[in-house]
Design goal:
Largest sheet: 22 strands, antiparallel, barrel
Number of strands: 52
Oligomer: single chain
Radius of gyration: 34 Å
Structural class: alpha+beta
Number of helices: 20
Distance between the termini: 19 Å
Length: about 1250
């Protein structure tokens, strides 16, 4: 009796304790439980009562079988693990356990009832459970990672930031944020704007939610399900936590304090010794048991950083920024002389950010067929002292306020074999920001001699912020409906669905609305001689409206237990509203209409598969092969249409003044501060060359389309040993229709070429260039001087990304969970001088550069490529009360392009790549000296990049930054004493540990830069003048170019200790799931050791005893009778008794562990149980071998499968449909 107890415990704990198994799958979607009830005569049993209980929440759903004995139960967010009980008059009751299948969310639970009342048995019906660390793949061909709170709570990561969670997935590239931009991520070389974040199945505009309100997060890097769309990169699919039959909740408080930070220079204002406090809480439970539930969560956080500006920069930081104390002091003195005080009393000396977010959810079970979910969300943010850079003064910043919220309705219905899911969500967001100083902005290019003798060139900023003020309001509405039809056998799930969303936005931002003065030196600033003045005029609020619709038809086909397929078509259409006014002159000159936004209809096919390689009928698959191919369509950047609505070229539309040379107005700062109406609206004089006002135009190519990508993948996972698996995944993404823009008003016939720079073309005449500053008038390069830049927005760019990921996952004998991966990426994309496909096509995207004609697309290494990337996560439950975890990364450096600080080719943009002068061959002594010092003091990577390009214009992304390693550690303590019962977790995180090791091993004066962000200086040359005789520019070499080493990086991230405490209210969900499986009459629903022994013992008896009992129960005429000899009976009896003694000891030990109320955590419990479980498995294997040795081959062939294959798991979707999922009948 005790032997099979071990087998059952293995199955139960396999479901509960592996973090990337069932617990990692929680909350994926709506689960469908279906099956058929037959009697002992194989006839359908009508009217049988089916009761399905979610193991996670304890929620119960009921159904009665139809005339054909079939039933279907829909469980929204059920958790993927169920106990199904079947009862019918005149039959014995039966119960089965269902665990999530590996291909989708269908559970086939067929049951055969007996005529006579017997002891209730428990039969587990499930597919193979994952080994530790192995990713579950709920859809055929998927590549994804499930991040459940059970695992994430243990790691040193911020769970509330979904982008942080995405970075835990192999192959995902994290894109850093700032105080004005949110952090994001990139998948398959696609721009971050082409990702999708969903919450409960619909789009969610925020990347942050209360961490205690999250039930599960899935990071999908490849999928072939046609119901997923509106992205070409990756998707974060998050589900919120709902209430259950048990009161549950948690309170989490975390603190980061400057006193627990360890910097190499405590007085360095650029080492962000910040203070952060975050409080997250959530609680919920039943309003009416099994019917009406609620859960609410709230998160509050406050972070205060020292303000990083020129006023707080110490001499060392200034050196790292490429300037020196003398230059900055002189700059500050000049500001005061002009009445431009660098700061004011109302400007804080800290950058303070306060955030709040809340979620509340209600679930109502209307009956057997319908379930309703209502959810509300709210968020708010206040940011003081934002948009202040390290090379600016505080008055150039401002403050920002954002708020928003929304409501969601979900209705899930089930009629026989049809399931319908209706969802709708509406949200509103508001954003406003205001500058501290309403005045034109100012930039001063400064050359400074650094302490090592090199010359650094930097741009100091002051005045008003060109991006402020801003006011924006966005309204978003999305609705979807999907009806699916299940075949009676459950092999097919046909899906027909649709989605529609509308986004309306009103933006009040006017870029450069008050103008910007640029000075070529501190001397020019002191003399009031700006080299350039630009200003945007007549700009108005930008309105944009986008409507997207999709219709999809697909099938998830479980062809067999080995092969699962998904395939289908997705039809998508887009319409853009609020079209601007018609400009007939633009149509006449360029044959394009300003009043038409292109719509689009597109069809995308997809197909994916998963194939399980099995060896025999027992145990998990030996290997899994998965793959697929399909097209994915993203969303066109809505801001492009908003910008085009204001740039029509009409007299009432946006225009720009562009003044150089003598046409630049002399600034009067006191007048500007006193009255913004005194800011110039025209250039000085009547020069049509150096001073002009030109109307800008943005117009769409009629063939413009949303970005798309053809994606394919092929991967395999192979079990190496019982606890480890090796996975290899290869993927390819071909981005097409990537967004870009060309300046169709640019005269691309060169006026002259610069012989000293490899015959670089210049599109403005030499007479349009100011000799003293090198500034170029925009007029000289215009085909039609009435207009400035005429951007034709098009979608003709492409990208190409190949990726290979190798992963090793598993658990050691001591229970250490390991997840290690290496990703090799090769990503290339096309860019133009004005825009790049890699950045979603804004005007002048970050990847934009040119060596000549900016309208010609060029292939090159993508800005988003990280050639090599290693990722490791470790969780080690050392003791039930103590565990350690770590997240480590090593990433190769990003590529960057050597550029010029200024416009060289005359196209009106600062987008020119630098010519790399060879100091030994150039005739310009200043250039030769500057390049020599740069090569002498620069790093090896910088030198290699420059030397291989001597005498040529630098290639795009031809330089690479150093590798970037990071390591974060966390220790978790869950005491059982003092009545805490492991409901309180104290966590200590060591963040940026490598920086601490760097300081310890190398000292503050010889840092290697371990754990530090890398922001290399991309500007190699600064334009200082123009020689009209030789038709060449005069440059200063920025000897700080490429600076990124530990001692030359101004932005320091310190080694820091963070503290956190989490209190569980009620029952923790993971623990509750464990108790629901092993439930009993003990305190809190936990089974007592006696109940555990009794339940498991009666489930399955000793196999030797089973053979003897079966032999005695069969009549002599039964053909399946073994006809044992006396010797065989004696041998089986001895083996039965011997096994009983061993099993008794094992069962007692396991029952004691399982019944101990202090063992609440499944992960730590598994560490204790693992040796015992392996002992039980060995007992089973040895017993079967001994039994087979006692019997003859003829006798062994008559032994039922239920005895000779006790590890065999019932599998769905194969063989005779009447036997699918049934307990063995032998």
């Amino acid at each position: 009796m005790k032997f099979r107890f071990c087998i059952t415990v293995v199955g139960v704990l396999g479901v509960l304790s592996l973090p990337s198994g069932i617990m990692a799958q929680v909350g994926s979607s709506t689960d469908i439980i279906m099956g058929q009830v037959l009697g002992p005569d194989s006839l359908p049993v009508a009217g049988a009562r089916i009761e399905a209980t979610s193991v996670e929440s304890g929620t119960v759903r009921t159904r009665t079988t139809a005339a054909d004995g079939r039933y279907t139960i829909v469980f929204p967010d059920g958790g993927g693990n169920y106990r199904v009980s079947v009862a019918a008059i005149g039959f014995s009751p039966q119960a089965i356990n269902l665990a999530r299948q590996a291909d989708e969310h269908r559970f086939v639970g067929n049951v055969r009832l007996g005529r006579f009342a017997t002891v209730l048995s428990a039969v587990t019906v499930r597919t193979t459970q994952a080994r530790p660390g192995q990713n579950q793949r709920p859809e055929a061909g998927n590549q994804e990672r499930n991040l459940s709170p059970l695992i994430v709570n243990r790691l040193p990561v911020d769970q509330s930031d979904l982008n942080n969670l995405a970075a835990l997935t192999p192959g995902v590239v994290a894109v850093s944020g700032s105080d004005t931009t949110t952090a994001s991520f990139s998948v398959a070389g696609q721009p971050a704007s082409q990702n999708s974040i969903t919450l409960d199945g619909l789009s969610f505009g925020s990347g942050s939610v209360p961490q205690e309100g999250v039930r599960n997060t899935r990071v999908v890097t490849a999928t072939y399900d046609v119901s997923r769309g509106q992205f070409t990169g990756g998707q974060i699919a998050t589900t919120t936590r709902g209430g259950s039959n048990n009161f549950q909740g948690a309170v989490n408080l975390s603190r980061r304090d400057p006193n627990l930070e360890f910097s190499d220079d405590a007085g360095d204002g650029f080492s962000p010794r910040y203070t952060q406090t975050q409080l997250s809480m959530g609680a919920g439970g039943p309003i009416i048991k099994n019917k009406f539930f609620t859960f609410a969560s709230l998160q509050l956080s406050r972070r205060a950083d020292p303000l990083q500006s020129l006023l707080v920069a110490d001499p060392l930081s200034l050196q790292r920024l490429g300037t020196n104390t003398d230059s900055v002091n002189r700059f500050i003195s000049l500001l005061n002389n002009y009445g431009l005080q660098p700061t004011q009393a109302f400007i804080p000396d800290e950058r303070v950010g306060e955030n709040a977010s809340a979620l509340v959810r209600f679930d109502y079970h209307l009956g057997e067929s319908n379930t309703v979910m209502l959810r509300g969300d709210w968020r708010g943010n206040v940011q003081d002292a934002s948009r202040i850079s390290a090379l600016s003064v505080p008055h150039s910043g401002g403050n920002a306020h954002t708020s928003g919220g929304g409501g969601m309705l979900t209705l899930t219905s089930n009629w026989s074999m049809y399931i319908n899911e209706l969802r709708a969500y509406e949200s509103v967001s508001n954003r406003s920001s205001a500058p501290y100083l309403a005045a034109p902005g100012g930039r001063v290019v400064v050359s400074s001699v650094l302490s090592d003798g090199s010359v650094g060139v930097s741009t100091l900023q002051f005045g008003g912020n060109t991006g402020l003020p801003q006011n924006a309001r966005t309204r978003y509405l999305e609705a979807s409906d999907e009806v699916s039809r299940l075949t009676t056998s459950g092999g097919h799930r046909f899906k027909l669905g649709g989605l529609v969303n509308e986004e309306r936005s009103l933006s009040g931002v006017i870029p450069n609305g008050l103008g910007t003065f640029t000075f070529n030196s501190l001397a020019d600033f002191e003399a009031g001689r700006p080299s350039l003045f630009t200003r945007t005029l007549l700009a108005r609020d930008r309105e944009a409206r986008t409507i997207n619709a999709a219709l999809y038809l697909g099938d998830s086909w479980r062809k067999s237990a080995e092969l699962q397929l998904t395939y289908g078509l997705r039809f998508e259409a887009t319409k853009f509203g609020n079209e601007p006014a018609f400009n007939p002159e633009i149509e006449s000159l360029f044959r394009l209409r300003t009043d038409r936004f292109p719509g689009e209809v597109h069809v995308s096919p997809r197909a994916g598969f998963t194939y399980f390689l099995r060896r025999g009928t027992e145990g998990p698959p030996l290997a899994t092969i998965r793959g697929g191919i399909g097209e994915f369509r993203g969303r066109a950047p809505a801001q492009l249409f908003g910008a085009a609505s204001d740039a029509t070229g009409l007299a009432t539309g946006q225009s720009q003044i562009f003044c150089v040379g003598n046409a630049v107005p002399v600034p009067d700062w006191n007048a500007y501060i006193a009255n913004t109406l005194s800011i110039p609206v025209a250039c000085n004089g009547n020069s049509s060359v150096f001073g002009n006002q030109r109307r800008n135009v943005s117009v769409f190519d009629p063939s413009f389309a949303a970005p798309r990508a053809w994606r394919s993948s092929l991967g395999t996972t192979r079990r190496l040993v019982d606890r480890y698996s090796l996975s290899i995944d290869a993927s390819y993404a071909r981005g097409v229709a990537q967004t870009g823009s060309t300046d169709i008003n640019l005269d691309t016939v060169p006026e002259f070429r610069i012989a000293a720079e490899g015959n670089r073309p210049v599109y403005a005449p030499a007479s349009a260039i100011v000799p003293g500053t090198g500034a170029i008038s925009l007029t000289g390069s215009r085909l039609h001087p009435t207009y400035g830049t005429v951007n034709e927005i098009m979608s003709r760019l492409a990208s190409d990304t190949k990726q290979l990921t190798i992963g090793l996952n598993g658990a050691t004998r001591r229970g250490i969970l390991l997840n290690m991966s290496y990703t090799l990426t090769r990503s290339r994309d096309q860019v133009q001088g004005l825009s790049g496909g890699g950045f979603g096509g804004g005007f002048g995207g970050g990847g934009s550069s040119t060596a000549g004609n900016p309208n010609v697309a060029e292939w090159g290494t993508s800005d988003l490529e990280r050639r090599h990337s290693f990722l490791t996560t470790v969780a080690w439950p050392v003791k039930p009360a103590f565990e350690l975890s770590a997240v480590g990364r090593i990433t190769s450096g990003a590529s960057f392009t050597p550029v010029v600080g200024g416009d060289v080719n005359g196209d009106g943009s600062r987008n020119d790549r630098a010519f790399v002068y060879n100091p030994s061959s150039t005739s310009n002594a200043a250039l030769a000296s500057g390049m020599s010092r740069l090569l002498l003091n620069g790093g090896a990577r910088t030198n290699d990049c420059l030397k291989k390009q001597f005498g040529t214009i630098a290639g795009r992304n031809s330089c690479t930054a150093p590798w970037s390693p990071t390591l974060d550690l966390q220790a978790n303590l869950r005491p059982a004493g003092f009545g805490l019962n492991r409901k309180v977790t104290f966590s200590i995180s060591a963040l940026n540990t490598l920086t601490g090791l760097d300081q310890l091993l190398h000292g503050s004066d010889n840092l290697r830069g371990w754990g530090q962000p890398v922001f290399p200086d991309r500007t190699l040359l600064y334009v200082r003048g123009f020689n009209a005789t030789t038709n060449s520019f005069t440059y200063d070499v920025n000897e700080h170019f490429g600076a990124s080493s530990g001692t030359r990086n101004a932005f320091r991230v310190p080694f820091q200790i963070a503290l956190q405490a989490r209190v569980t209210l009620g029952q923790d969900p993971a623990t509750q799931q464990f108790r629901n499986v092993l439930g009993g009459t003990g305190r809190g629903g936990r089974a007592t050791p006696e109940e555990l022994r009794e339940r498991m013992a009666r489930a399955v008896p000793n196999p030797f005893g089973m053979l003897l009992e079966r032999e005695d129960s069969l009549p002599a005429t039964d053909s399946t009778k073994l006809n044992l000899t006396a010797e065989q009976r004696a041998a089986l009896t001895v083996k039965r008794d011997s096994l009983q003694v061993k099993a008794d000891s094992l069962v007692d030990a396991l029952s004691k562990l399982l019944g101990d109320p202090r063992n609440n955590d499944p992960l730590t419990l598994m560490t204790q149980l693992r040796p015992r479980i392996e002992e039980g498995r060995n007992l089973a294997r040895e017993a079967l071998k001994q039994a087979q040795a006692i019997l003859t081959p003829t006798q062994w062939a008559k032994v039922p499968t239920s005895i000779k294959s006790p590890f065999q798991q019932q599998r769905d979707g194969q063989g005779d449909p009447e036997r699918r999922g049934f307990p063995n009948r032998d």
